[in-house]
């Protein structure tokens, strides 16, 4: 059987669609790993299980990641807009970052949301984070409502946050 250019294009399109659905994360169904805590910059331990009941965004970032730094103002705006509704943002700095750089970035960018430091890399490993930014929007029931590799479409993210807050 001989395929022409049109046939090859259709075959490539079908293969791409299949790959998208086969490789797409199972959003909304998978629960976050149990019994995990993040260590905040203030030295407190924040068990993720304690956040059940309200949605939150867990975003893995790095001071050396241009996309992560670009996203900070939008995340700060979401924090200010929805913190009184019970929504939280937890920015998890990667293990290859250093504490002075994380603290400097927090001060420079006015990051008021919770910042944690995954010093050992164990949390990133639990979530299979390989690049930054990688973010997980967690529903009130503790299941992953959305997962994003790279920067968010912030209108889409805010729409989903509002849906989760309304329950």
Automatic annotation (TrEMBL):
UniProt name for this protein: Redoxin domain protein
Residue ranges occupied by any Thioredoxin domain in the UniProt entry: 25-166
Record PROSITE patterns: THIOREDOXIN_2 (PS51352)
Alphabetical list of SUPFAM superfamilies matching this protein: Thioredoxin-like
Top-level lineage group: Bacteria
UniProt-recorded Gene Ontology molecular function terms: antioxidant activity; oxidoreductase activity
């Amino acid at each position: 059987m001989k395929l022409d250019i049109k046939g090859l294009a259709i075959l490539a399109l079908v293969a791409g669609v299949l790959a998208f659905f086969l490789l797409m994360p199972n959003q909304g169904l998978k629960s976050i790993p149990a019994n995990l805590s993040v260590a905040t910059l203030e030295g407190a331990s924040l068990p993720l299980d304690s956040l059940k009941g309200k949605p939150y965004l867990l975003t893995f970032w790095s001071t050396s990641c241009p996309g992560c730094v670009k996203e900070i103002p939008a995340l700060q705006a979401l924090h200010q807009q929805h913190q009184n509704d019970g929504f939280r943002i937890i920015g998890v700095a990667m293990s290859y970052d250093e504490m002075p750089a994380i603290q400097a970035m927090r001060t420079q960018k006015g990051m008021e949301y919770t910042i944690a430091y995954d010093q050992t890399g164990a949390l990133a490993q639990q979530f299979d984070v390989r690049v930054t930014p990688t973010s997980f929007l967690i529903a009130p029931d503790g299941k992953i409502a959305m997962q994003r590799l790279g920067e968010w479409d912030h209108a889409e993210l805010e729409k989903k946050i509002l849906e989760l807050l309304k329950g």
